[in-house]
Amino acid sequence: MLTDAALRNLKPKSKIYKASDRDRMYVTVSRQCRHVPHDYRFDGRRETLTLGRYGPHGISLAMARALLLDARKSVLKGIPPRLKSNARNATFSIC
Hints:
This protein has helices spanning 4-8, 61-77, 81-89, and strands at residues 17-20, 26-29, 34-42, 45-54. It has 95 residues and is an alpha+beta fold.
């Protein structure tokens, strides 16, 4: 399980890599930023929802986990979480 200290200490490498957390949430680390995606299944398809960008100008790990719970509740209700989050995540998707 990731912690804030562990996320801050992730260093960019020559290629984009992933650091796993729990509940199919992980962090992709690139040279520019750290994104927090979540993989889920909806209507039998695998989909990925980007919860936000980690860091001082993005979201915290606690906020990402809260957004993850909200997305999981949406899937249980039969609502694709990507429809609810397009406007919310638009500001976080740019590095």
